[in-house]
Amino acid sequence: MLTKIERQELSLDSVGRWWLDALEEGGIGACDAEGNLEPVGAFNPRGRKTWPTFVSKGNLHAHYLEHARRLGDRYPCTLAVFGKKLNTLAKLLDTRPTVIGKRVTGYGLPDLTRAREQFDEVLGHARAWGEQDLEQ
Questions:
Q1: 30: Cβ–Cβ under 8 A, 6 or more apart, which residues?
Q2: Buried b vs exposed e over 11-28: b needs ≥16 C-beta within 10 Å?
Q3: I need a labelling partner for 24 at 20 to 30 A (CA). Which of 71, 96, 112, 115 fits?
Q4: Whole-prediction pTM value?
Q5: Shortest CA distance to 134 belongs to which of 20, 47, 12?
Q6: Model confidence over 80-101: pLDDT tens digits?
Q7: 48 pLDDT higher than 80
């Protein structure tokens, strides 16, 4: 018999499942020294995912699409729909900083602990996240 929490998590759409997996893993992908999310497939010398402080909208969507592809999702969300759905799960700060000399549209992310708390608030329950916090 599934618990209420398990039923809620199983009923999440592809964006919700991706965000839950990122929160459980404690990271989205490789980040540079400033905490900016690197593109999908970027070399990661540490060999693990980290929690970014800034993500370009395109890179974040590409990480979601890779996750959706691995799970066999035939109709992943477009960039616009993805952003709207993700904003219901997390309090993202729309920003446009200069990264490597270029203005980039993206999001400032809350730290991992706060992102998990926000997800719990949206679902209406406190989840046991464990001790998976990677460097932030």
A1: 37, 38, 42, 43, 44, 46, 49, 50
A2: eeebbbbbbbebbeebbb
A3: 96
A4: 0.83
A5: 47
A6: 999 999 999 998 888 776 766 7
A7: no
